[in-house]
Amino acid sequence: MQQLMWWTQAKFVVAVVVVVFYHDSVLLLEHSYRPRYPWGLPTGWVHYGETLEAAARREVWEEAQVALGSLYWLYETFPSRRHLEVAFWAEATHMGPQKSSSDGEITAIAWTPWPGMLPEGLLPTQRNIIQMAGLERNKPHQMPDEP
Known about the structure:
Layout: H1 2-8, E1 13-22, E2 25-31, E3 39-40, E4 43-45, H2 52-64, E5 66-80, E6 83-95, E7 106-113, H3 124-137
Parallel strand pairs: 1-6
Antiparallel strand pairs: 1-2, 1-4, 2-3, 2-7, 5-6
């Protein structure tokens, strides 16, 4: 009966993508599992019970040891039927030791000049996300009114 329930229930995953700026640069990570497009943004799955904001902060810290200021929503999309992707941008506020991940997922961390030439090997969809975040970053942002 448990197997029948597992097979008949919808499986759904939620991922976060984060564009991180620091002064005139953007954070890019070299991923070991994408040989064709190794460079990309910090991304990851949202854990059960975790908020989108907490997942975004956790993924950026786990992958690059970077703490974030305020998170700003960019977009949400369904890249496949059972996969929701939510993108944010933020400014880096603190950086720990910049090193590749111990699990081998991240092989290099780079702060790339922005605006500027993004590296070859950057996932094409993420190139667009960075450009969108750059435009949003230049707009004035207000904090919501306090209740």
